[in-house]
């Protein structure tokens, strides 16, 4: 009850802020735990190391107040051939450190473009809008006919009747009731809602799922969902397998390069790898690929065997043609006789004349 009262007292802009921050916290926690860091000093928590990269596009590590810490980073000093500064600045709430790259300061990029995760903000915007659409659809799909009152006494009578319905009370209406007197059996109401539109909520919910799927695909989770009304083959189902691995592998490469820099500069033994959930997805995709290749080989071998197919003979259903079978001897003799008779019938008149001439000779 306290939560409901608190939520209802918020202004619309505050509610929108809570909605956005809720989805941001949810999705940010997911991408902030894509990788597992090992060997980090206690002064550098992983959640801050990853958080700076996802929010600002990079993170810097340096010794500030004799303690190795991470913070917001930027390049400075003389630039190299590609326009990148050869020195760096690391800023934390407790101080700032400026120094040579890979000598006093190490900077880790979130990706090859040194950019923050902009897709996070785009997806949050869209799913928040979908939530508002679902909210409106739920409200305007309710069955709420609004009674039309001609005067205040009639309004009071309507209000009392509606309150009784909501409270579940069974009240008796007399013939002198003002509603019956004024309206009789006619129901004068105003319908601002349409209960038939409630089925549209499922499409908004499906769009919500599709947007989340789009987000997760680019961060290593290919959600293989199928619409009931669509026809999807195996190639389409696994078409995003390689794309879902591309961005995470780029991010992992940047972090592995940073591990080499920080280990060499500060004498650490830091390593990084995928989170178990992403690694399991990669292993499953590889297993699926091997299975598909095996199925292809099987289909090819079956196609080769079917070039000259041999129909098997069912001994129980097909008669035997073995002449050595005693049961078939009589049948074979009859067949031979029939063949001789056919030959005799097929003899031509010319053959008969030749036979007569040979007989006279």
3D structure, described in words:
The protein is an alpha+beta fold and 361 residues long. The chain is 52% helix and 15% strand. It has twelve helices and nine strands. The strands form three sheets. The protein has a five-stranded antiparallel beta sheet. The chain has a two-stranded antiparallel sheet with strand order 1-9. Strand 4 (85-92) and strand 5 (95-100) form a beta hairpin. Helix 2 (12-31) crosses helix 4 (118-140). The chain is flat.
Specify the biggest β-sheet.
5 strands, antiparallel
Q: Please, what is the oligomeric state?
A: single chain
- Report the β-strand fraction as a percent range: 5-15%
Number of helices: 12
The beta-strand count equals: 9
For the biggest β-sheet, the strand order reads 5-4-3-2-6
**Fraction of helical residues:** 40-55%
Order of helices and strands: HHEHEEEEEHEHHEHHHEHHH
Global outline: flat
Mean pLDDT: 79
Structural class: alpha+beta
Spatial gap, N to C terminus: 132 Å
- Radius of gyration (CA) equals 42 Å
Ranges where pLDDT stays below 50 over 5 or more residues in a row are: 226-233, 317-323
